[in-house]
Amino acid sequence: MGNRIIERARKDGQIYKARYVQETIVLPDGNSTAVRGTVPQKIDKHGKRRLPNSKEGEQHLRLLIKQREQQYWDHVNGVDKDKQFSVFFSEFMSVHADVENKPGEVKNKWKLANHHLLPFFGTFVLSAIDAKLIAKFKKEMKAKTSAQTGEPYSMKYLN
Q1: Separation of alpha carbons 131 and 64, rounded Å
Q2: Are the C-beta atoms of residues 84 and 125 closer than 8 Å to each other?
């Protein structure tokens, strides 16, 4: 895995340092592909740009790898990014979850979906669901309480 500092030039000619990450991964079909990019700079509490450290570089690289693998599976499975979440979820459950899980697990997954996922994400198209929207969903879930006990949901339940 490559995780190093490089120098880059801005449009105005000014030179700055950036953290560059690169790794070659093998996709399930046997083809290898390079995943690479520069890690976005952070703004510190004083408003100055800060060069990301190597740990942040690794985290960014893992995110890039995950995105590349997701692109691969979307291509293989023919996922339509303009499809509504509710339609996609129903198809996913009928093709994967209903087949690979016990009836009790399938029932629990549908219950969770009908109470939490579908009311929140149901009308969104898949391409509109991003990290910000998921963070908003998690925040709302942490604020909810159980109808039976009146207590907040446990972290195990939320994850």
Answers
A1: 14
A2: yes
Kindly state the tokens that stand for 90: 């129903």
Whether the full predicted model's pTM is greater than 0.85, yes or no, is: no
Positive/negative CA dihedral, 6, 10, 16, 19: negative
pLDDT one-digit tens code per residue, 72-95: 777 667 667 778 888 888 877 877
Look at residue 76 in the predicted model and tell me its pLDDT: 66
- Name, in order, each residue with C-beta under 8 angstroms of 6's C-beta and a sequence gap of 6 or more: 17, 18, 19, 20, 38
What 3-state class would DSSP assign to 44?
A: coil
Helix (H, G, I), strand (E, B) or coil at 4: strand
Answer whether 42's CB lies under 8 Å from 57's CB. no
Q: Give tens-digit pLDDT for 11-40.
A: 888 887 888 888 888 877 777 888 877 777
| Residue 101, amino acid | N
